[in-house]
């Protein structure tokens, strides 16, 4: 089983463990089984709107054994980043949740609400209450010389009703007004992963997430193996076009593969499987590349087809994104299910 090669799970939350207030089917059972087998589990989230203790409480409510020490939020990482830019006691303007402001105070800074207080740093994290006034104060402070730091740059936030506006989209408004792009503390940077690994005292963690440009890119940047699950943001189309620094080690529909004794790790890597074949051809009209998926039968799955296509697609040069054509009935069923 996949978990055999690892001593810890570094787990994203939104789109990986839960959607809104509901756990993703199979996730809780897989994590608990991994913990029972002696693995550690930690939760790494770009959502800066909740305190670690609140995240742990929510994890407990869906059936996971977790404490606040098992949680690393982008707000925690952002505060550590702020300490590199401002002295203790310095004024910091926080755009974000009350829990974010509490972390900033606990780090020894003075939290302010106005650009008129001459903050040394603007810290920008997600909160449902962020609005025009908050963004405008941030813009004024940045224009006056404050260092701009963001907890994360996620453009969307998976919720029960779909993908809502994420912190990155709010940051984009401030950047548009000031011309200043913030340094981000959260994923896809490696710091949250390496800090968590060191806190756990483990050596071979597996990063698990649903979003290529944050979860998987962060794990890759940290030099760790990654499992991409198709339960959240990034689907088959995104995988096929993923640049090298966003390509996961393993791909699966959900986390049940972690403890499935019938599934070997190598089966989850991009490779020809399920009776499928994939060949790269050139389109004479466009000059672009086409991956032709063939073979398979009634027992073949769309995931087997996807891993077969990825092996071929990722063999192409940097920046080259192929079209996919199906040459058999099984291939057509698989490709149609992706789009």
UniProtKB/TrEMBL annotation:
Keywords: Hydrolase
Single GO molecular function: phosphatase activity
Pfam families, sorted: Hydrolase_6, Hydrolase_like
A cellular-component GO term for this protein: cytoplasm
InterPro entries: HAD-like_sf (IPR036412), HAD-SF_hydro_IIA (IPR006357), HAD_sf (IPR023214)
Entry superkingdom: Bacteria
Coiled-coil regions, chain positions: none
Record-given protein name: HAD hydrolase, family IIA
Organism: Corynebacterium genitalium ATCC 33030
């Amino acid at each position: 089983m996949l978990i055999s090669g690892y001593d810890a799970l570094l787990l994203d939350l939104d789109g990986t463990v839960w959607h809104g207030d509901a756990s993703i089917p199979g996730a809780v059972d897989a994590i608990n089984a991994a913990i029972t087998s002696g693995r550690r589990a930690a939760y790494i989230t770009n959502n800066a709107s909740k305190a670690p203790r609140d995240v742990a409480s929510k994890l407990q409510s869906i059936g996971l054994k977790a404490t606040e020490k098992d949680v690393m939020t982008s707000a925690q990482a952002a505060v550590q980043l702020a300490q590199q830019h401002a002295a203790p006691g310095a004024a910091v303007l926080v755009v974000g949740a009350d829990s974010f402001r509490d972390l900033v105070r606990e780090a020894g800074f003075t939290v302010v609400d106005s650009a008129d207080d001459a903050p040394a740093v603007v810290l920008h994290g997600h909160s449902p209450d962020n609005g025009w006034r908050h963004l405008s104060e941030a813009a004024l402070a940045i224009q006056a010389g404050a260092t701009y730091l963001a907890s994360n740059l996620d453009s969307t936030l998976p919720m029960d009703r779909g993908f809502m506006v994420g912190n990155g989209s709010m940051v984009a408004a401030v950047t548009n007004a000031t011309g200043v792009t913030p340094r981000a503390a959260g994923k896809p940077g490696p710091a949250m992963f390496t800090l968590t690994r060191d806190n756990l005292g483990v050596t071979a963690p597996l990063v698990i997430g649903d979003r290529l440009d944050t979860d998987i890119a962060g794990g890759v940047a940290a030099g760790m193996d990654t499992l991409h699950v198709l339960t959240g943001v990034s689907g088959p189309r995104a995988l096929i076009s993923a640049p090298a620094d966003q390509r996961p080690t393993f791909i699966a529909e959900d986390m049940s593969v972690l403890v499935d004794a019938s599934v070997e790790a190598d089966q989850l890597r991009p490779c020809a499987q399920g009776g499928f074949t994939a060949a790269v051809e050139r389109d004479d009209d466009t000059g672009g590349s086409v991956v032709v998926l063939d073979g398979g039968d009634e027992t073949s799955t769309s995931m087997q087809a996807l891993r077969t296509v990825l092996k071929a697609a990722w063999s192409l040069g940097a920046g080259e994104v192929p079209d996919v054509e199906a040459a058999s009935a099984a291939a057509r069923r698989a490709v149609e299910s992706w789009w």
